[in-house]
Amino acid sequence: MSLPIVIVGAGQAGLQAAEALRAEGWQGDLILLGDAPCAPYHRPPLSKAYLLGESTVEQLTMRGPEALERKAITLRKSSRVMRIDPAEKTLHFSHGSSLPYHRLVLATGARARQLSGADLHGVFQLRTLEDCTRIGEAMATAQNIAVIGGGFIGLEFAAVARKKGKSVTVIEAANRLMARAVSAEVSEIYARLHTERGVVLRLGSGVAGFTSTNGRVSGVTLSDGHNVSADLVLMGVGILPNQELAEAAGISCASGVIIDSGGRTSDPFIFACGDCTATRLENGDFRRLESVQNAIEQAKSCAASIMNKDRPFTAAPWFWSDQYDVKLQMVGTSQGHDHTVIRGDTNAYKCSIFYFAGERLIGIDSLNRPQDHMGGRRLLDQGVSLTPQQAADESFALNRLFQPEAAAT
User: Which residues are registered as beta bridge partners of 271?
Assistant: First the structure.
């Protein structure tokens, strides 16, 4: 009997890799290992619709038992891999059993970064469905909420908390919001958005520790000595890739499991995709993308490579964030731009910011302008640019620049 392809991690990337392997023609056994006791589920709604009570666990579920059975994907829940033996091509589990593999896919994801003092009651992180359930229960009685970290997770949670009528303070060490991901222009727009909704922003403020009463958090002490009163604290200070399994097995890692554009690692029988991975850039640095698109497309490339096909993931990266009634959609990058063009009304939170390096378009951030986002994705994927004058002209439709063959698909 032939050995199975085993996928460690039953999140977005792991599930996509399993389904892509079936689509690519793998007919052997396919085993999906998840450490959670539930079916694979969508994570993006956790910090938004699910916390607001606008979606259910059933709606979060990506594939139920029947769907997995139809594709002959075996899901093993609550399965924690303790060690990979690459020489024997075998996985060893926490309960003592083992599992040999034909090929192995690591889709181990990432975990929330911790701060000292996180063991207090009332201090949370938001990464899993279990986290979200605990936070929802605590929010029922909380009044004063402190959010540590002004990134996407922190701000999405802050928006939910304000909608629920809570007093919210966002504490961010940088001097602007979402500084690692967006331009200064977008940071300024979102600072205004949250301030108008009643959120108190403490920018350029480090965290020195927590105050507590009887083991329960009562506040956050800032580096300047100021104390922010809080009976619930959410830590949104970034994530760490789950690369320990790969590292212990001798697989090359650098801020993630290092892969090429086809999901190949330094071991010819082991592949990886999703939040746990890092790719090498032309300048020698490593980049790790944390998005649904990246998880899906890397998984497809990974599956193709396993089936001895070449399908590298080359599309422009895109991402979105919902905060209040504003949807931010990002494509490409703002890093390295030397000038910007704004189309639309920033005060009405309906605008797009086009980023140029010289005359070349490198990215677009759109607020409540989905047509600009979708058009920008097509342009960047095709390597087609527009001029700053065209970007500024509201009457100029981006689809006028699409390549004919792409416009017909």
Answer: 105, 264
In this structure, are residues 34 and 129 in contact, taking their beta carbons and an 8 Å threshold? no
* pLDDT tens digits, 362-388: 999 999 999 999 999 999 999 998 999
Sheet containing 350-357, strands listed edge to edge, beginning at the edge strand earlier in sequence? 318-323, 326-332, 360-367, 350-357, 339-345
Q: Is 351 helix (H, G, I), strand (E, B) or coil?
A: strand
Helix axes 184-196, 152-163, angle to 10 degrees: 20
Calculate ∠ Cα 127-132-133, nearest 5°: 145
pLDDT interval class at 104 (50, 70, 90): very high
Return the half-sphere exposure (C-beta side, CA atoms, 13 A cut-off) of residue 90. 9
Q: Which amino acid is at 237?
A: V
Structure tokens at 246: 């790969």
CA distance 312 to 147: 38
Q: Stretch 166-183: mean pLDDT, rounded?
A: 96
DSSP string covering 152-208:
HHHHHHHHHHHHTT-EEEEEESSSSTTTTTS-HHHHHHHHHHHHHTTPEEEET--EE
Single-letter amino acid code for the residue at 231: D
In angstroms, the CA 355 to CA 330 distance is 11
Instruction: Work out whether the CA dihedral 130, 135, 137, 138 comes out positive or negative.
Output: positive
Q: Over 60: is that where the pLDDT of 8 sits?
A: yes
Amino acid at 395: S
CB 398 within 8 A of CB 372: yes
Q: Pairing between strand 5-8 and 286-287?
A: unpaired
H-run or E-run covering 21: helix 12-23
- How many Å apart are CA 382 and CA 375, to the nearest integer? 11
Element housing 340 (H / E)? strand 339-345
The residues near 227 (Cβ < 8 Å, ≥ 6 apart) are 211, 219, 220, 221
Kindly state the tokens that stand for 100: 């040999």
Q: Give the model confidence (pLDDT) of 63-96 as tens digits.
A: 999 999 999 999 999 999 999 999 999 999 988 8
Q: How far apart are CA 323 and CA 327, in angstroms?
A: 7
What's the pTM? 0.92
Give residues with Cβ within 8 angstroms of 58, minimum separation 6: none
